[in-house]
Amino acid sequence: MNTEKSVKERFFHALGFEVVAIGICAPLGTWLLGYSLAHMGLLTLMISLIAMSWNMAFNAMFDWAQRRLDFRRTLWARGVHSVLFETGLLVAVVPLAAWWLGIGLWEAFVLDIGIVLFFLPYTFAFNWIYDHLRAAVIARKNRLSAA
What we know:
about 150 residues; mainly alpha; about 0% strand
């Protein structure tokens, strides 16, 4: 699989990931936590901006590591990818959530664990689907170029 991606493609990948996530998380957070949709929507937007930046940086590092270490994106590699990504995001998001929701760091941490339990399979599935769609688009492009 070709892991070389332009900045434009990395941005598109991260944006797609975050748009779908906001569409799921803002209403779900409103329903589960009892805050207004506007309050949860702004929190998810702030988290999204942090996550999008982290997504682009982390995936660039992951692609670099894949080229340097020459590993395939097996289920194991995708699992490691998801855990490392979410751990980095946790460090940035817990203080923000505690401040925005007016709760303690422990409560924000517990809340974030719940969010991670959603995002681990979401991250895995989104990236798996994205990689397969990307490979199909590249293969089609190559077939059309060869014709």
